[in-house]
Amino acid sequence: MAPDRRKMIVEAATKSFSLFGFKATTMDQVAKLANVGKGTIYTFFKNKEELFEEIISTLVKEMIAEADAVIQTDLPFTENVHRALYRLLEFRSQHQLMIKLVQEEAEMGTLTVSEMLQHVENEIIAYLKLKIETAIAKGSIPEVNTEVTSFLLLKMYIALVSDWERNHEPLSSEQIAEIMKVFLLKGLPR
């Protein structure tokens, strides 16, 4: 059976981006890691950016599959949102490529990386928006601006999981879920 060169190239590029970041990865490195000629890469991908987009697209699909895996139809909407967001952020923080990309964006501000991370965020927001629209249709939650609510859910979750922990004791999953219920789904207490 002939080797799947495209798959080998994608795997090699993923490894290189994970180790060196987008900016420092060259097509020569990818070719060497994939054990193919550099020209072979160009039979499948126009350039490094297109190869990177392919990898990020696959990564987003994996993230959404991870989130879907923890959703249980018998649980309340708020619990499922919490479970899905937790899984997405857990995936993001444990996946070597995502760690390297976040680091590269923070340290170098590489435009292509910033755009791809924004793409990942947009996909997560679109995923949340769909879940919120479904919950509204079922009568599980009241009518809301789904896009704004999705954005706020993600940003609040990131703030509580990551930003808060820089200067405070980490919050438990239950505490985070309760805070999100109060502020976003029940409204501020009177």
TrEMBL record:
Pfam families: TetR_N. Keywords: DNA-binding, Repressor. Residues 3-63 form the HTH tetR-type domain. Residues 26-45 bind DNA. InterPro entries: DNA-bd_HTH_TetR-type_CS, Homeodomain-like_sf, HTH-type_Tx_Regulator, HTH_TetR, Tet_transcr_reg_TetR-rel_C_sf. Gene3D superfamilies: Homeodomain-like (1.10.10.60), Tetracycline Repressor, domain 2 (1.10.357.10). GO terms for molecular function: DNA binding. It comes from the Bacteria. This is TetR/AcrR family transcriptional regulator.
